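wait is this the right file?? whatever heres the structure
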């Protein structure tokens, strides 16, 4: 999660300084994710074969993950980092529901309450104008409707994480990352061309910065995929709250975006909800 945060932070900085567009950064990540993991698998002698019954699962994982990550990176051109990541990290709540529906993991009363509290916290952090008025969102370019973009990212990520969890250890953890990377390699360049207004001419500084940023996400994706196979889905993703906390700090310290008491209270509600999910899953492990 720390590596993902650093990748998102660099993506936002490069976009804000008009060095590299968000979807340009994602394109670099996709290529690094595929070729880096193929090289890693070859060096370590990891098998890259998949049993026929998992082929469709890997394709759905790649599709859902690609849709999610494109939505998240595009959202960086519309909202602050903390807003995007707060909406994105509703996915532990989505994962908890999906895992109960498709993986047979139990969903107790405390988890249902946690999901409700978590989504309430997201409302307080994002402060949609329909509830809090226009003056509350002066730092954000996107409208309330645009908040659906990172939410689509969260929904797709939740589906993707649940599918990885479904493979358990029957598929080597490098394989879902490669499938996912191929999806990014195909879709991100197309998205970058369609979003040309947010893509400045590439410079050597932008090239090396995007390469380094993509490398961080590539390593983070491998760690996340393995963690989702070993740990309960909601627990593995709940650690993502760390990204929300770090994004609040970076928004304030680097971008000069202050957070008020309502947003801090919403962050506390999300943390409380994630603790509730994690505690229940640990108790039933």
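ok assuming it is, sequence goes like this
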């Amino acid at each position: 999660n720390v590596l993902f945060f650093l990748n998102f932070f660099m993506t936002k900085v490069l976009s804000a300084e008009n060095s590299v567009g968000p979807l340009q950064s994602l394109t670099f990540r996709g290529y690094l994710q595929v070729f880096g993991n193929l090289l890693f698998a070859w060096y370590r002698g990891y098998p890259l074969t998949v049993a026929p019954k998992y082929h469709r699962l890997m394709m759905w994982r790649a599709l859902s993950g690609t849709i999610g990550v494109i939505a998240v990176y595009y959202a960086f051109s519309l909202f602050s980092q903390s807003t995007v990541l707060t909406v994105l990290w509703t996915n532990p709540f989505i994962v908890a529901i999906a895992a109960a529906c498709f993986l047979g993991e139990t969903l107790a009363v405390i988890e249902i309450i946690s999901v409700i509290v978590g989504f309430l916290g997201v409302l307080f952090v994002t402060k949609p104008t329909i509830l809090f008025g226009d003056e509350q969102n002066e730092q954000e370019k996107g409208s309330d409707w645009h908040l659906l973009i990172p939410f689509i990212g969260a929904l797709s990520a939740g589906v993707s994480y649940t599918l990885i969890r479904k493979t358990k250890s029957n598929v080597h953890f490098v394989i879902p990352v490669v499938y996912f990377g191929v999806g990014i390699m195909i879709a991100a360049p197309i998205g970058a061309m369609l979003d040309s207004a947010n893509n400045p001419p590439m410079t050597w500084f932008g090239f090396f910065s995007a390469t380094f940023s993509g490398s961080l996400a590539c390593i983070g994706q491998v760690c996340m995929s393995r963690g989702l196979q070993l740990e309960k889905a909601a627990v593995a993703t709940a650690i993502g709250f760390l990204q929300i906390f770090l994004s609040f700090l970076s928004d304030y310290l680097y971008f000069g975006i202050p957070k008020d008491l309502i947003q801090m209270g919403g962050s506390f509600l999300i943390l409380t909800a994630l603790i509730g999910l994690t505690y229940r899953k640990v108790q039933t492990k």
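Residues 34 and 87 are 27 Å apart (CA to CA). so i think its the right one actually
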